[in-house]
Write a structure and sequence with these properties.
Number of strands: 14
Number of domains: 4
Bound molecules: zinc ion
Radius of gyration: 25 Å
Largest sheet: 5 strands, mixed
Strand content: 15-25%
Shape: globular
Order of helices and strands: EEEEEEEEEHHHEEEHHEHEHHHHHHHHHH
Length: 413
């Protein structure tokens, strides 16, 4: 920790010290540089320091997968205005999220992570309790939106979060995305069409007009409500959501085939095939020699997986190529026909969804050069990469960072 000082991105705080605790958490001891607080009794400024409250800890955004904990002793102030004197107020922080456990910075980060993911996955990855993440989401549901703070919505995103531990239950997150950031507009306690529709309709008319496109995943309730409010032309199922589905289908084949191979191959031979998940998810050009060799071995043992993988790559290739909308439609149609012709059944469910939303999926090609939330993200990664290479010169760090960016690694970025 000697050479690394972590920037905090929080105003009004001074870093006193940074250290690691026994669990490997980064502990940053901070103090407030504010000189007053609002008296809880009369509402006027209290400026006379009166000792400290008890030590508080707040989880902040992790740095390189390491939890960061802010430790602060809140200052107490005595009010000069109250009669009789002796009224004290402990300072409060505008950077602490509702619930008093985490910072607003972490809250925002968690919310971005949990989009298209599950609460459990995010809690596990961030080493934070399930309850903290759920509390955060509950706080955001039904929060009144102040539309006056927005002037241009540009791209609206409708995404889902898997909500409950035991059974599949979803909530919807509606956000405004520009090239570099996501602002959460609303969190809905359901992903039903009626609820999403109600929210989209509540956007003031002058802001509705600033919406150039609505990016959504392929869930019917999302697509249909977006079409109803913004029209067919503006609704885009972006490639991330498409790839999530067909890669999911490929994953299912992999899991089944690996199980089969485990039961028939000698354990030594099988162990050579470990780590296939990442290899199958990466872009072929990004594979190392060793990884390509592994893949060949796997192909030899499982012609079915070879076929499924090659058709998944073909789809990725279609999305990587700058087609216009019409030729993209034709390419997708041809892909469907040839998959059906060779009897590759693993993509059956995917093809059903693809056919249903082909128009919105093809809209992606129309706008890809101008919309590019993902492309914006891509640029962001490049900037981070440049910065981190200069700083740490490690490849694994870059990989971790890429993984952090909300599963967009799936695109092979
Ligand atoms: Zn007072």
């Amino acid at each position: 920790m000697k050479d690394l000082s972590i920037p905090l991105d929080i105003d009004n705080l001074k870093v006193i010290s940074q250290t690691l605790d026994t669990k490997g958490n980064i502990i940053i001891t901070v103090e407030s540089i504010c000189t007053k607080t609002t008296c809880h009794k009369c509402g006027k400024d209290a400026t006379k320091r009166y000792g400290y409250g008890s030590l508080m800890e707040y989880r902040h955004t992790s740095v390189f997968d390491t939890p960061v904990i802010l430790r602060i002793k809140p200052v107490r102030y005595e009010c000069e205005h109250c009669e009789p004197p002796g009224t004290t107020t402990t300072e409060r922080y505008n950077w602490v999220a509702e619930g008093g456990k985490i910072t607003k910075g972490l809250e925002e980060y968690l919310l971005r992570c949990v989009i298209n993911s599950t609460i459990q996955d995010v809690a596990k990855k961030e080493r934070i309790s399930y309850k903290t993440v759920q509390t955060m989401l509950n706080n955001l549901i039904h929060r009144e939106i102040d539309w006056s703070q927005y002037s241009d919505l540009e791209t609206i995103g409708i995404d889902e979060i898997s909500n409950r531990k035991s059974h599949q239950d979803f909530i919807a997150v509606i956000s405004a995305k520009d090239k570099y950031s996501i602002t959460i507009l609303g969190v809905l306690d359901s992903r039903k069409k009626d609820d999403v529709l109600k929210f989209l309709e509540s956007i003031p008319d002058h802001l509705k007009k600033t919406v150039k496109q609505v990016c959504t995943d392929m869930y019917d309730g999302f697509v249909n409500s977006a079409i109803e409010v913004f029209g067919k032309q503006k609704v885009v199922v972006d490639r991330y959501h498409v790839s999530k589905l067909y890669r999911g289908a490929l994953d299912n084949v992999r899991i089944k085939e690996m199980k089969r191979l485990k039961s028939i191959l000698p354990s030594e031979e099988y162990s050579e095939l470990e780590g296939m998940m990442w290899i199958l998810r990466k872009q072929y050009e990004c594979l190392s020699k060793e990884e390509k060799r592994k893949l060949e071995t796997l192909y030899k043992h499982s012609p079915l997986l070879k076929k499924a993988h090659s058709y998944a790559l073909k789809l990725t290739h279609i999305f990587n190529t700058h087609h216009d909308r019409k030729s993209a439609m034709a390419k997708l149609d041809r892909w469907i026909i040839s998959v059906e012709k060779i009897g590759l059944s693993c993509f059956n469910t995917f093809i059903k969804t693809l056919n249903k939303h082909k128009g919105s999926i093809a809209n992606y090609f129309k706008n890809r050069s101008t919309s590019g939330f993902v492309e914006g993200l891509n640029n962001k990664i490049k900037v981070i990469k440049r910065r981190c290479y200069g700083f740490f010169k490690t490849d694994s760090l870059f990989q971790r960072l890429t993984i952090d960016l909300n599963g967009y690694r799936m695109l092979g970025l």
